[in-house]
Design a protein that fits this description.
By secondary structure, the protein is α/β, with parallel strands linked by helices. The chain has 2 domains: 85 residues, 2-Layer Sandwich (Ribosomal Protein S8, Chain: A, domain 1), CATH 3.30.1370; 132 residues, Rossmann fold (3-Layer(aba) Sandwich), CATH 3.40.50.1970. The protein has 11 helices and 11 strands. The strands form 3 sheets. Strands 8-7-9-10-11 form a 5-stranded parallel sheet. Strands 3-4-6-5 form a 4-stranded mixed sheet, with helices on both faces. Strands 1-2 form a two-stranded antiparallel ribbon. The longest helix is centred in the N-terminal third of the chain and has 15 residues. It starts with 8 loop residues before the first helix and ends in an 8-residue tail after the last helix. 41% of the residues are buried. The N terminus is likely disordered.
């Protein structure tokens, strides 16, 4: 199948640069072939790093840190650093960041969301339009993961924390700000009612994120997940339990289309 999708600037410049070096005699054909051998992925003994994903879908492969060793995270991040302007590692422990930082000097760490980020596109203008909301303070780590993801995709993110149904007046006080967003990410545990309530008051998409916050009968997030899936308010999309990354990514795609811009802000 032929892919006619226009490459992103970063990938396009890399490919063009290799071809120009061949034309100028700075690389032999065999050397260029070796350079391009990472397409469509780079084979590592324990992973296949998908360097072409940014070209295909507009955002690089994301490293899920949980279940990987520190050495594996460092190896994958280092391979990506040579080919990508953006790197995101989710569910990363502090010791993984320390090791990554030793190899990639411009890496940063968000201890709340447990994410490692490399962003070499910080000078790009951010698209406004995403607001992240939590039911409670305990939901903030998942909300932060969503915000970090959406910001790395080139979006400006506003946060409104701790306006759950136990004090619903707090939500109404923030409603003017909530209604300014193009897309909302609503993160809640316990019974998970907040996204449905908000969705009945706004005219924009709501991405609901159930969290594992709650007592025994919440079943580690299953109860709020079912509440959100069964909401009678139209306009809700529900991601998996504690999946802040998935919510941030979806919101970034929606906001990108709403602003009629690509991943480079053009």
């Amino acid at each position: 199948m032929v892919n006619n999708k226009k490459p992103t600037k970063a990938a396009d410049e890399w490919l063009t640069g290799v071809l120009k070096k061949v034309k100028a005699g700075k690389l032999t054909v065999n050397q260029a072939l070796k350079e391009l051998s990472v397409l469509p992925y780079e084979e590592m003994d324990f992973a296949k790093v998908d360097h072409h994903r940014n070209v295909r879908v507009g955002f690089p492969e994301v490293i899920f840190g949980r279940g990987k060793t520190v050495a594996q995270i460092v190896s994958i991040a280092s391979a990506m650093s040579a080919r990508s302007q953006r790197i995101l590692v989710t569910h990363a422990p502090p010791e993984a960041f320390t090791a990554v930082k030793a190899k990639i000097k411009d890496a940063s760490y968000n201890s709340v969301s447990r994410t490692i980020v490399v962003n070499r596109m910080r000078n790009k203008p951010l698209r406004p339009g995403i607001t992240v909301i939590t039911g409670g303070t305990a939901d903030i780590p998942t909300a932060e993961e969503a915000a970090v993801t959406a910001e790395l995709m080139g979006n400006k993110v506003e946060n409104i924390f701790d306006i759950g149904v136990a004090g619903i007046h707090r939500m109404f006080e923030n409603l003017p700000q909530i209604r300014k967003a193009n897309v909302l990410i609503v993160v809640a545990g316990m019974e998970g009612a907040l996204p449905g309530i908000i969705c009945g008051l706004v005219s924009v998409p709501v991405i609901a994120v159930p969290t594992s916050v709650g007592y025994g009968a919440s079943f580690n997030g299953l109860a709020p997940l079912l509440t959100m899936l069964n909401s009678c308010a139209p306009g809700i999309a529900v991601v998996n339990i504690d999946n802040g990354f998935g919510a941030g990514y979806l919101a970034g795609l929606i906001n990108q289309r709403n602003n009629n811009t690509d991943e480079n802000g053009k």
